[in-house]
Design goal:
It catalyses: N(6)-dimethylallyladenosine(37) in tRNA + (sulfur carrier)-SH + AH2 + 2 S-adenosyl-L-methionine = 2-methylsulfanyl-N(6)-dimethylallyladenosine(37) in tRNA + (sulfur carrier)-H + 5'-deoxyadenosine + L-methionine + A + S-adenosyl-L-homocysteine + 2 H(+). With 447 residues, the chain is of the alpha/beta class. The chain is 35% helix and 23% strand. Among the domains are: 129 residues, Methylthiotransferase, N-terminal domain (Rossmann fold, 3-Layer(aba) Sandwich), CATH 3.40.50; 57 residues, OB fold (Dihydrolipoamide Acetyltransferase, E2P). It contains 13 helices and 21 strands. The mean pLDDT is 91.
């Protein structure tokens, strides 16, 4: 590979989960520390980082398609970009990517992206580099201080998973569960607030498994961390995602009723309403135990909004078992939810199970499930009409004088009036749609 001029501009394109968004932001900060600027909108970048997700079907093939588009665009512009592939596809397919895509200069896994700057130096010299080592937590010590933040920021507190659900690649691409140290998290949260964050969402593949010692040496869990972060002046809201039912302890349930800054929203994946399917997935809960757990959260915080994840068409799923999932959806009444067709991930036990479901059956079941979820989401939004609540202003709307933000229940709210990004405003929710609500400003923005 020929030597290249050092890149002047970059673009990080992140796919998939919120943790990838966080990782993408941190990689951008690393590149900015090297004096590389983000490429202006609509202009080709000298360096493109594809920060990939391996959860979706054909994730690797989509990466190759993106690489092909970048190469073609560069040829047309007479400008060959440096390309880096990062994230979970990089971790799972590292050497294969290097073999199949000569245009790629760097492949870096999600636990090694702190070494992206030194890999870039090699790429500029014409050397290709792959780094898919998985050192526990080391990357966070090497990342720059947070200097700029959106009003709603992400903070990774935990990575990896030990649950080994039979459909999931996370234990193989992100590694074993590990918690970041308490002091590092408090420091980063303070820096985010100083940089403009009003809301922080704590992230983890299994965030409710976070544990550590506080500044007094006491062992605490996620609830203890949330309590201490709530003491940060200027931080108005706290959220967390994604959790596993097995790790939702009494303290975390109680925190929802006791900590005002902890928003009334819970994302708790269930995946299926069938106990047999849940067992085949290696999920440790049953439909009944899951429903009992949600009821405890509702007792602690009666206005809590509930969200979940669902997989349809898991190997062996019968029509009756799918209908068990529909029954669970109706029993819960989700405010939001994510639903997917099962897709085999190489190396996972479910990929070789008997009873793989035909594509057309999965398609039909997904449509029915999403219709039920959409019905409940609209009902939740309609029940919110007439409520007065705080809305965190996150960005401008499409029209002059229009703003978009989030309610405490993570609903998108648009309204018109005098305000600014980062303000918390009092609004009355006056009209509901399936995906958003209209609000009416009640008073000037709160300080």
């Amino acid at each position: 590979m020929r030597q290249s001029a050092p890149p002047k501009t970059y673009r990080v394109k992140s796919f998939g989960c919120q943790m990838n968004v966080y990782d993408g932001e941190r990689m951008a900060e690393l590149l900015a520390d090297k004096g590389i600027a983000p490429a202006p909108e609509g202009e080709d970048a000298d360096l493109v980082v594809l920060n990939t997700c391996h959860i979706r079907e054909k994730a690797a093939e989509k990466v190759y398609s993106d690489i092909g588009r970048l190469v073609k665009s560069g040829e047309q512009a007479g400008k060959k970009p440096l390309i880096a592939v990062a994230g979970c596809v990089a971790q799972a397919e590292g050497e294969e990517i290097m073999a199949r895509a000569p245009a790629v200069s760097m492949v870096v896994g999600p636990q090694a992206y702190h070494r992206l700057p030194e890999m870039l130096d090699k790429a500029v010299r014409g050397e290709r580099a792959t780094d898919t080592d998985m050192p526990p937590i080391a990357k966070f010590d090497a990342l720059p201080q947070r200097r700029k933040s959106p009003p709603a920021a992400f903070l990774t507190v935990q990575e990896g998973c030990d649950k080994f659900c039979t459909y999931c690649v996370v234990p193989y691409t992100r590694g074993a569960e590990i918690s970041r140290p308490y002091s590092d998290l408090v420091t980063e949260a303070r820096k985010l607030v100083e940089a403009g964050a009003r809301e922080i969402t704590l992230l983890g593949q299994n965030v409710s498994a976070w544990s550590g010692e506080d500044d007094r040496g006491r062992a605490i869990g996620l609830a203890g961390l949330i309590r201490d972060l709530a003491d940060i002046d200027g931080l108005a809201r706290i959220r967390y995602t994604t959790s596993h039912p097995a790790d939702m302890d009494d303290a975390l349930i109680a925190a929802h009723g006791e900590i005002d800054k902890l928003m009334p929203f819970l994302h708790l994946p269930v995946q299926s309403g069938s106990d047999r399917v849940l067992k085949a997935m290696n999920r440790s809960h049953t439909a009944e135990s899951y429903l009992r757990l949600l009821e405890r959260f509702r007792q602690a915080r009666p206005d809590i909004a509930l969200s979940g994840d669902f997989i349809v068409g898991f190997p062996g799923e019968t029509e009756a078992e799918f209908e068990d999932t529909l029954a669970l959806v109706d029993a819960v009444g989700y405010a939001q939810a994510f639903s997917f067709k099962y897709s085999p991930r190489p190396g996972t036990p479910a990929a070789t199970m008997d009873g793989q479901i035909p594509r057309e059956v999965m398609d039909e079941r997904l449509q029915r499930l999403q219709a039920a979820l959409n019905r409940h989401q609209l009902a939740f939004n309609q029940a919110s009409v007439g409520r007065a609540c705080e809305v965190l202003v996150e960005r401008k709307g499409k029209h002059a004088g229009q703003w978009l933000g989030k309610s405490p229940w993570l609903q998108s709210v648009w309204f018109e009036g005098e305000t600014a990004i980062g303000d918390l405003v009092q609004a009355e929710l006056v009209e509901a749609g399936p995906n958003s609500l209209a609000g009416k400003l009640r008073e000037p923005a709160l300080a």
